[in-house]
């Protein structure tokens, strides 16, 4: 069996509510549990979708996967090796496309300088070779080579996001985290950018972690979907399986907002609890229409059947 390109084993990421002078977590100090005990693996050339409400920990998990933030506990392996063992080499192979292209691009630099930066950092050729590579990158994302002389404010939102994608591709990575890459774009432009991402993934054999709140898009684009709630993965499986037969009440609640294909779609009551004081037992139980006494006492374990893994007592002996 081919090992995964990226794996997370028991990964948590906590933040101090009041950091100490050294930025460390102190004993008995309240913490924000942004990511809690996440274990998952992403296969080579797979597109894994990560969905959940705002504040569920999706973007934090993406940053931990890229070693932009260290895990508080657990470990991350990329191609079988911790990223920290050779961080420069890891940076060449793992990149990110951000949500808002306007804020992620340096407005004081030309497009040429923006795209040249990663090439310089990773010592790609001489000035002439870098300029040739920049022109190639612009063509790859559907932009003209003469756009390298422009500044970000002279481009449309879709063009700026194409520049962001080109920057991520500059040093030929294998893995890209796409953090809601179309949410800041006009609806008319979103499909163009998504089609570009699909074409690049297939042509360059890329692996994506696609973070989004758009379940219809994730269903269409992704091989598998992971559903995140209050820092935990509550369900993960093939995209079509989760769309047509969701098992976790939270997944059903998310789908109820976008489709009538599920029978008697439930609604998640109330607001998302604070990640500083998550509920005991199953974190979703205060909002869950199927919750029972066991849900408030005992955290559910992962149960796998037919390729879908779900953490819910409904699938592990009942909620009583």
From TrEMBL:
Alphabetical list of CDD domains matching this protein: ABC_NikE_OppD_transporters (cd03257)
Keyword entries, A-Z: ATP-binding, Nucleotide-binding, Transport
Domain spans labelled ABC transporter: 6-255
InterPro entries reported in the protein's UniProt record: AAA+_ATPase, ABC_transp_ATP-bind, ABC_transporter-like_ATP-bd, ABC_transporter-like_CS, Oligopep_ABC_C
Membrane topology: Peripheral membrane protein
One protein family per Pfam: oligo_HPY
UniProt-recorded Gene Ontology molecular function terms: ATP binding
Subcellular location as annotated: Cell membrane
NCBIfam families, A to Z: oligo_HPY
Similarity remark: Belongs to the ABC transporter superfamily.
Protein name as it appears in the record: ABC transporter ATP-binding protein
Species this protein is from: Falsiroseomonas tokyonensis
């Amino acid at each position: 069996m081919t090992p995964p390109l990226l794996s997370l084993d028991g990964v948590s990421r906590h933040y101090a509510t009041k950091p100490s002078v050294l930025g460390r977590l102190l004993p008995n100090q309240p913490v924000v549990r942004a990511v809690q005990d996440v274990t998952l693996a992403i296969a080579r050339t797979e597109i894994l979708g990560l969905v959940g409400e705002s504040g569920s920990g999706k973007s934090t998990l993406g940053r931990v996967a890229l070693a932009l933030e260290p895990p508080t506990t657990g470990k991350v392996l990329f191609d079988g090796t911790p990223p920290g063992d050779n961080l420069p080499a890891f940076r060449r192979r793992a990149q990110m496309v951000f949500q808002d292209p306007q804020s992620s691009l340096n407005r004081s630099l030309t497009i040429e300088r923006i795209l040249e930066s990663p090439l310089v950092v990773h010592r790609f050729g001489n000035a002439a070779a870098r300029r040739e590579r920049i022109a190639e990158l612009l063509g790859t994302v559907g932009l003209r080579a003469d756009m390298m002389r422009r500044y970000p404010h002279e481009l449309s939102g879709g063009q700026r996001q194409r520049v962001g994608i080109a920057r991520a591709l500059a040093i030929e990575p294998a893995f890209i985290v796409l953090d809601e890459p179309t949410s800041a774009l006009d609806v008319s432009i979103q499909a163009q950018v998504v089609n570009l991402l699909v074409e690049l993934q297939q042509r360059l054999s890329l692996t994506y972690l696609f973070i989004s709140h758009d379940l219809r898009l994730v269903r269409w684009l992704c091989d598998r979907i992971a559903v995140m709630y209050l820092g935990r993965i509550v369900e993960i499986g093939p995209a079509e399986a989760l769309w047509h037969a969701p098992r976790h009440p939270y997944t059903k609640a998310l789908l109820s907002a976008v489709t009538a294909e599920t029978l008697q779609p439930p609604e998640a009551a109330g607001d998302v609890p604070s990640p500083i004081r998550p509920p005991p037992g199953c974190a979703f139980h205060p909002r869950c229409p199927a919750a029972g006494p066991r849900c408030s006492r005992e955290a559910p374990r992962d149960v796998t059947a037919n390729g879908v893994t779900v953490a819910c007592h409904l699938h592990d002996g009942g909620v009583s």
